[in-house]
Amino acid sequence: MSNAYDVIINGASVGGCTAAILYAQQGARVALLERRSDMDAHKVLCTHYIQASAYPVMVATGLDKALEQAGAIRNTAHYWTRWGWIRPPHDAAGAHGYSVRRETLDPLLRRLAAGTEGVDLKPGHTVNELLVEDGRVVGVAGTAGEEAFSLRAPLVVGADGKESTVARLAGARAETTENGRFSYFAYFKGLARQAGDAARVYYLEPDNAYVMPMEDDVTVIAAVVSKPRLGDFKADLEGAYMNFVRSLPEAPDIDSAERISKIIGTVNYPLVSREPAGSGYALIGDAALASDPLAAVGCAWAMQSAQWLVSESAPALTGGGDATTDTALDAALRKYSARHTAETGPHHHLIADFATARPFNEIEEFSFSAAARDPEMAAHFHTFGSRLMTVEEFLSPEIVARMEKVNGHGLSEAVLRQLAGEDAAGGDEDGGASRTSSTGHTHQELWDAWNRLWNGDYAIADDYVSRTMRVNIPEFGMPDPATLSDGPQIAAWIAAFRSSYAEDAAITGELGPFFVGDYAIGRWVFRGTWTGDRPATATAAPGTEVTFRGVDILRFEDGRIAEYWLSDDQLDLYARLGAVAGAESGDSQQAALPARLAGLSPDAGRAVLVERALDLVAELLEDEKVSAAAGAATFLSLGLDSLTAVELRNRLQQETGLRLPTTMAFDFPTPQSLAGHLWTRLTQTAAADPADPFDVLARLEELAPALADSGQEALRSEMADRLGILAKRLAPAPGAAGEQIEEASAAELFAYLDSRLGAAEDR
């Protein structure tokens, strides 16, 4: 058989077998290497719980049916806390994973892979070397018994576990976090199942335990204990383990069951996170991220990371997309790396923090206690634990408001100050700007470095930008965010932008920055002389002076800039350069909506605007079903987030010729209410052609920097007085919403938000 393949996978366990099956389904030729020769070999240290987040991958590989036939348990869990049990309502048709022993799972999955056309399973093959040409991995070499072997492929995948050989040989960057707990577990037969087939997880603060029913009437019981107690277990493992299990609240009756294994465990299990991909190689499963076993994410993330990698890279390997080239594959691997970081990073951050074996913090107490008291919050808690929602969704404003109602109290002022970036002793005067990290960079220094980058200081990029940077930018006129994942890539992007402007082009701050926890936000203005080149569609003459504004949001992690959000007026920039037809002159594109409304009745005109708003939402979300949604649904419920809401505003601003606020989708939360506002603005403008107040405000903002010059004190004073009088005339009546918000407590604000969001949903 030829030694050339489309992909080589080292490791025929959960992640490797999943990837092999999925690649072969896409037409790839796969070499699946496994150092062990026994087809029934299996991993020993495992939580044995496959999270529901991996269920779609199991369906895609056929593993779900095989597990059902093997008697694996469709899993759910109950959680013990000091507030009582968290018992999610059982939904037989709901999302689920499986609880199954690895001695069942691993051989079953390995045989599924071996039976898939296109997969060449090679047991007993040990990889000792990566083949590298011009800095790129192009294959592997090693031994099979006493024979040497060498295989070549455009992509080598490390699915070889926490101590990954591929990662080590490739020199993949890694971060290690110490685990504050150790664990021991044993298998029991015939143990009475107190909660049916539900697993029981104990949060004992700082110790933990779980009791998990599996196939063949077997139950695994694990003691996950803080390291100060390690001496007791070393002195008498049998006695310490059995007594620990007997001491659990509503403890399982282990004395009436048969223990069918020795007590197995590990005293040192650090958490390891690696860069998921490099030139010609990628890592999946524990090779990419070995998180805390207590969180039971290992098997699911192994399957999911395999699916993420295959979906991004298979077209480049099989010719299903661009031609199979190093460039196409590199782009696919960057997308995979960015997706892996985005999907697992926030969850792993919380898991790693809890693995220090500390007691609950106040936010955890707040959410756990609410889940123990309220079935809806219990279901929400379990969904998050199953990794079926993001961290942001778990603590969304409406969820926090409900937790407050359930608990009868809100978070303390100290925690609110910490969330706002202040210290527990009373707060930083700079709102968190002085907070430092392991690198010694304060948040203010990171913000300043970001602005230096945009002003041409590219050499500092690698010192201040994370090596797993995540960028969130609009699609209009922007590169693929997956190509912007580290300092050098960010610097190259900025350099490409600045290359179209004279050297003195600069970004300066207009408002902020404001620091909240590990986030910063600020508004900036860019001024420069355009010299040509980008954008290619520009019709302006070189030497054109341009000014445009935007808002940057940065998230900091481990002393570097880890994530970036951009909302800018790039449409204005393109209009100034003549790169967008009709953006300034009011011709065909900008006049499209007003022309369609001409001669229509108010009801018919508003219907057209509702339809157009829904069509734009459908385009932005790439969801054709949205266009058929009722105009009374909120933009929030349709799926818009803050970035797509700004994109919607930009598109409507372009098509109507009106200047619209960036908060448009929140000021007018439904397509119907927005259509009413647009109809009024458009018809009033057509009837009387008054000065648009937003244009007036924009003009004042543009004049403000000029008034800051010395010698303008008298003019500034007069304008400030007149604006103050105007502000008083526009202010709400005493006792209105603004005054109430100033005096409201945090609990009252959350209650108000809850009521407003509910009202918006009902409109």
Work out the radius of gyration.
Answer: 29 Å
Structural class: alpha+beta
Proportion of strand residues: 15-25%
Tell me the distance between the termini. 66 Å
Shape: globular
In terms of per-residue confidence, which ranges show pLDDT below 50 for 5 or more consecutive residues?
423-429, 581-591, 686-691, 734-746, 752-763
Mean pLDDT: 83
Number of strands: 29
Give the helix tally: 28
Largest sheet: 8 strands, mixed
What percent of the residues sit in helical stretches (DSSP H or I)? 40-55%
Notable characteristics:
28 helices; alpha+beta; eight-stranded mixed sheet; disordered C terminus; 763 residues; 29 strands; six-stranded mixed sheet
Describe the structure.
- The protein is an alpha+beta fold and 763 residues long.
- Helices cover 41% and strands 21% of the residues.
- Strands 5, 6, 14, 16, 17, 18, 19 and 20 form an 8-stranded mixed beta sheet that branches. A 6-stranded mixed beta sheet has the order 8-2-1-12-23-22.
- A hairpin with a 2-residue loop joins strand 28 and strand 29.
- Helix 10 packs across helix 13 and helix 20 crosses helix 24.
Please describe the topology of this protein.
Layout (H helix, E strand, L loop, with lengths): L6 E4 L3 H12 L4 E5 L14 E2 L4 H7 L1 H8 L2 E2 L2 E5 L2 E3 L11 E2 L2 H13 L4 E5 L1 E9 L2 E9 L2 E6 L2 E4 L6 H6 L3 E4 L3 E9 L4 E4 L1 E5 L4 E6 L4 E9 L3 H6 L1 H10 L11 E2 L4 E3 L4 E4 L2 E2 L2 E3 L5 E2 L7 H21 L7 H29 L7 H12 L1 H11 L5 H4 L2 H11 L5 H7 L23 H12 L6 H4 E8 L14 H12 L7 E11 L2 E11 L15 E13 L2 E9 L1 H7 L15 H6 L4 H20 L13 H4 L3 H15 L7 H4 L3 H18 L4 H15 L5 H18 L6 H7 L2 H17 L1
Parallel strand pairs: 1-2, 1-12, 2-8, 5-16, 12-23, 25-29
Antiparallel strand pairs: 3-7, 4-7, 5-6, 9-10, 10-11, 13-21, 14-18, 14-19, 14-20, 16-17, 17-18, 21-24, 22-23, 26-27, 27-28, 28-29
Helix pairs in contact: 1-4, 1-8, 3-4, 8-9, 10-11, 10-13, 13-28, 20-22, 20-24
